[in-house]
């Protein structure tokens, strides 16, 4: 009788012990997940993110010769493009001045630029990508302004994208341009370009949410669109940090 009781006690002690151990493990596990979330995923508020990205792009981008030395070590690829871009034709500078004026007037934070070709020597600035607070969905979004002119109808072509995360390749892909669709921020399918895409002047403003699930770090996105002759008609790069 006595013997049985003490055995029961022992058993219940080990049982509680195991449960206690399980709770501690679960607690540690949950704390670790939470710490990982705080460290890598929880972004600062939108205002802070925009402040973090202020002047960042112009520091990284190809036209700013002064930043060459600081960037050269990180990315040899960026650097070669910079070297070819030191002497810009006057017409290019005029376009740049117009866009920089536009950014200054509106107090926009630029995180990207779009050109009419990928050739660093002859390309002309045709657009800007800025970072904004996303009032509708929360967090931050990008807005791209484009004013470009196509010399002839675009009847065929491809859309290329290449994304780097903390200077490592993350994702690249390409699609047929004609009839290419994508989902906008409200989840509706939209056509990017219908072919033939008429020659002449085009003016666009497009918003794109920066997804909240992206981890913290530096994102570099290169996008280029080619026509039926495989010439790039638009070529853009954006760099932002989260
Ligand atoms: C872009 O085009 C629109 C429409 O023609 C014009 O109102 C705007 O000033 C242009 N922006 C720049 C920076 O050239």
Give the tags.
242 residues; alpha+beta; 6 helices; transmembrane
Report on the architecture of this protein.
- InterPro entries: Ig_E-set (IPR014756), ML_dom (IPR003172).
- The chain has two domains: 1-42; 46-241, no CATH class.
- Helices cover 34% and strands 33% of the residues.
- It contains six helices and ten strands; from the N terminus they run ααααααββββββββββ.
- It has helices spanning 2-41, 46-53, 56-60, 68-72, 76-83, 90-106; strands at 109-115, 125-133, 140-150, 158-165, 168-176, 181-183, 189-191, 200-209, 218-226, 232-241.
- The strands form two sheets. The protein has an eight-stranded antiparallel beta sheet. A two-stranded antiparallel sheet has the order 6-7.
- Strand 2 and strand 3 form a beta hairpin.
- It starts with a helix and ends with a strand.
- The model is unreliable at 59-86 (pLDDT under 50).
- Bound molecules: 2-acetamido-2-deoxy-beta-D-glucopyranose.
- Residues 98-99, 102, 147, 203 line the site of 2-acetamido-2-deoxy-beta-D-glucopyranose.
Look at the helices and sheets and give the structural class.
Answer: alpha+beta
Q: What count of structural domains?
A: 2
Radius of gyration: 26 Å
The neighbouring-strand order within the major sheet is 5-4-9-10-1-2-3-8
- Care to count the β-strands? 10
Cα separation of the termini:
67 Å
Into which percentage range does the β-strand content fall? Answer: 25-35%
Helical content band: 25-40%
What average pLDDT do the residues reach? 82
Major β-sheet profile: 8 strands, antiparallel
Principal-axis shape equals: elongated
Q: Give the helices and strands as they follow along the chain.
A: HHHHHHEEEEEEEEEE
Enumerate the distinct ligands: 2-acetamido-2-deoxy-beta-D-glucopyranose
Catalogue the unreliable spans. Answer: 59-86
The number of helical runs is: 6
């Amino acid at each position: 009788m006595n013997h049985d009781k003490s055995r029961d006690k022992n058993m219940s002690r080990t049982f509680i012990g195991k449960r206690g151990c399980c709770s501690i493990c679960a607690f540690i596990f949950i704390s670790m997940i939470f710490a990982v979330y705080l460290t890598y995923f929880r972004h600062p508020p939108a205002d802070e993110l925009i402040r973090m990205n202020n002047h960042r792009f112009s520091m990284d981008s190809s036209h700013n010769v002064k930043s060459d030395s600081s960037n050269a070590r990180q990315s040899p690829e960026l650097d070669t493009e910079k070297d070819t871009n030191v002497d810009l034709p006057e017409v290019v500078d005029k376009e740049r001045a117009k866009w920089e004026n536009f950014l200054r007037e509106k107090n926009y934070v630029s995180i990207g630029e779009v050109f009419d070709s990928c050739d660093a020597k002859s390309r002309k600035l045709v657009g800007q990508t800025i970072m904004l607070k996303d009032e509708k969905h929360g967090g931050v979004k990008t807005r791209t302004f484009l004013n470009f002119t196509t010399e002839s109808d675009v009847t065929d072509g491809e859309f290329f994208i290449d994304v780097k995360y903390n200077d490592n390749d993350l994702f690249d892909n390409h699609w047929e341009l004609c009839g290419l669709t994508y989902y906008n921020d409200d989840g509706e399918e939209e056509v990017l370009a219908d072919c033939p895409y008429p020659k002449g002047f085009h003016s666009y403003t497009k918003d794109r949410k920066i997804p909240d699930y992206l981890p913290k770090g530096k994102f570099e996105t290169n996008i280029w669109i080619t026509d039926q002759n495989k010439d790039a008609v638009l070529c853009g790069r954006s760099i932002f940090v989260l």
